[in-house]
Amino acid sequence: MIDDRLFLVTGATGKTGGGAARLLLADGHRVRALAHRDDDRSRALAAAGAEVVVADLHDLDAVTTAMRGVTSAYFCHPIREGLVEATAYFAQAAIDAGVRSVVNMSQISARPDAGSHAAQQHWLCERLLDRTGLLTAHLRPTFFAEWLTTWWERRDGEGYLRLPFGDGRHAPIASADQARVIAALLLDPEPHDRAVYPLHGPVEQDHHDIARAIAATLGIPVHYEPITVEEFATAMTARGLPAHLVQHLGNVAIDYRNGIFSGTNDIVERIGGRAPLSVEQFVLENKTSFDTSGPNFVPADGRL
Prior knowledge:
Layout: E1 6-9, H1 15-26, E2 30-35, H2 40-47, E3 51-54, H3 60-67, E4 72-75, H4 83-97, E5 101-105, H5 117-130, E6 135-141, H6 147-150, E7 152-155, E8 158-163, E9 169-170, H7 175-187, E10 195-199, E11 205-206, H8 207-218, E12 222-226, H9 229-238, H10 243-257, H11 267-272, H12 279-285
Parallel strand pairs: 1-2, 1-4, 2-3, 4-5, 5-6, 6-10, 8-12
Antiparallel strand pairs: 7-8, 9-11
């Protein structure tokens, strides 16, 4: 039988969306990739076989057009203002187009009393989607392994992670592992309707453990230096990050210290079909990302 299903992937030039789109394409499925702009990443998806649509999730007409003929869709909104509006547009467009199922990227800190505005809005958007007739699955990942490269500093041949996470613990989850879960849920949504899936890597660690794992893999000294939430927020503001994102990062740092991001489970392997990457495996696969400092590292002298 010919499988003529069409899968819409938003955030298609990002890590989770791009990974899911490529997995679906590799298996011969039709993919419509929604990208925010025409660039090298979107053109690479087109070269891989995707139908690329350049659209804004905050443009109802554009989202409605992108949804036509779609069987299942992946919704992923960046940590920016406008999540509730974009979710409402997305849900309405999906309903009007007769879409069957949605995979929603939420976050592990999503709850009604979250201090982070973004996390609280994610919880609200989960409930919004649950009230539609769409088959819906929500993903709540812990901190991405990729975030280690975002706040990584390479200085004088050594590595530094200066972060406000105290002695909290989590099991970092690589975006590639999340992508396999997303693709699997798009292909087989029925068993997962209204499910909320926390996604974790294989080993729960604090950042001292993570630093040791990175050091062992790279063969250089790596240091975790706990800092205050205030120092972190000040540095992120100085780097020009939006206030909405800085407010989120400061509050999830507190959540992290309080254990909200901790835990492990078998969801990635059970649904995605492969055990998730460890920190060591992630670093080994992304060694060049650790050759230089990441874009948002917090310098020890406070000067950016």
